[in-house]
Amino acid sequence: MPELPEMEHYKLLLLQKLRGKTVSNVEVNREKSINVVPEVFLNNVKGHQIINIERKAKHLLFYLDNGHVLLLHLMLGGWMFYGKDEDKPDRTIQIQLSFGNEHLYFIGLRLGFLHIYNSKADVEKELAGLGPEPLSPNFTFTEFMALIEKRRGRLKTKLVDQQFLSGIGNCYSDEICFHAGTIPKRELNELSSSENKQLFESIHHVLKDALKHGGYMENPLFKGDTLTGGYNNLCKVYDREGESCLRCGSKIIKEMISSRKTFYCLNCQK
C-alpha cells in the first residue's frame, strides 16, 4: 500500500503534469470507487481546471476551480498512470480523467477510492481524525514527546496507527525501527529518552530518504519514469525474510504483530 513517501512523490510529479490543466472528459467504470452517482461526479469534474494538488497522510487532494475537491486513497493494490492511450498499462481502469490526448488512469481501486467533496472544509472534516504529519516543520521533538507521553502499545502498532501519526504503514514502520535499532515489538512507553530521540530522528531520516528515491511502489507513474520505486531495492528489512541483515549479517525475521507482517533483525534491533 502506498504510504507517505509514495503519495508525496506522486503529488510532486502530478503537480508538474496537471496543475492548470482542464479535465476534458471523465470515465467511471466502477461506481463503488466514487461516492456519488456517476452523473454528479462527471458534472462537477468535467470542464474544470485542477488548480492544486496536496497530500494529507496517505491521501491526495485534487482542488478544482469550482471549489470541489477530489480525495484519493489508493489503499491496497491501487496505483496511477499518466499518459496517452497507447502507453497505458494493460489493466482494468476504474476511473479515467482526460486532459486532451493525455489521461490519468486510476487502476486497482478495489479497496481504494476517488471521492468528491463540495469544499476544502468538507475534506478537512473527513480527515479530522488523522494524527500529526511526521514531516511537518511543526512536528518537533517536543511535539513528538508530548504525543507519546502516557501512550501505550507496541511500537509497530503505534507507528501504523493513523490517529497517532499519519502516513506511516507496514513498510516504513519496519524501516524506521531498523534504522533506530529498536525491535518493533517493544512497548512504546518503555523506551528510554535516548531511544525516543533516535526514533524521532529515524522517522525523519527514513521518510525523507524514501521520498528522495521515489518510494518503494514499483509501477512507473508515466512513460520514461525511472525514479518511482527506487527505494524498493534500498529497503533494509521490509519483505526480506530469510535474507542477511545488511548491518550484521543475521537472518531477517518475519513475525505477525497485531495481524500485520513485520520484518526485523533480532540481533541488531534491541
TrEMBL record:
One of the protein's GO biological processes = base-excision repair
The reactions it catalyses are: Hydrolysis of DNA containing ring-opened 7-methylguanine residues, releasing 2,6-diamino-4-hydroxy-5-(N-methyl)formamidopyrimidine; 2'-deoxyribonucleotide-(2'-deoxyribose 5'-phosphate)-2'-deoxyribonucleotide-DNA = a 3'-end 2'-deoxyribonucleotide-(2,3-dehydro-2,3-deoxyribose 5'-phosphate)-DNA + a 5'-end 5'-phospho-2'-deoxyribonucleoside-DNA + H(+)
Q: Which Pfam family, giving just one, matches this sequence? A: zf-FPG_IleRS
Q: Which organism is it from?
A: Pseudoneobacillus rhizosphaerae
Kindly list the cofactors needed.
Zn(2+)
Q: Does the keyword tRNA processing apply?
A: no
Q: Which domain of life is it from?
A: Bacteria
The protein's matches in SMART domains, at most eight in alphabetical order, are given as:
Fapy_DNA_glyco (SM00898), H2TH (SM01232)
Q: Name one GO molecular function term.
A: double-stranded DNA binding
Descriptive protein name? Formamidopyrimidine-DNA glycosylase
InterPro entries given in the database record: FPG_cat (IPR012319), FPG_N (IPR035937), H2TH_FPG (IPR015886), Ribosomal_uS13-like_H2TH (IPR010979), Znf_DNA_glyclase/AP_lyase (IPR000214), Znf_FPG/IleRS (IPR010663)
Concerning SUPFAM superfamilies, the annotation shows:
Glucocorticoid receptor-like (DNA-binding domain) (SSF57716), N-terminal domain of MutM-like DNA repair proteins (SSF81624), S13-like H2TH domain (SSF46946)
* Keyword annotations of the record: DNA damage, DNA repair, DNA-binding, Glycosidase, Hydrolase, Lyase, Metal-binding, Multifunctional enzyme, Zinc, Zinc-finger
Q: Quote the EC number.
A: 3.2.2.23, 4.2.99.18
Q: Which residues form the FPG-type domain?
A: 236-270
Concerning its family, UniProt says:
Belongs to the FPG family.
Domain Formamidopyrimidine-DNA glycosylase catalytic residue range list: 2-112
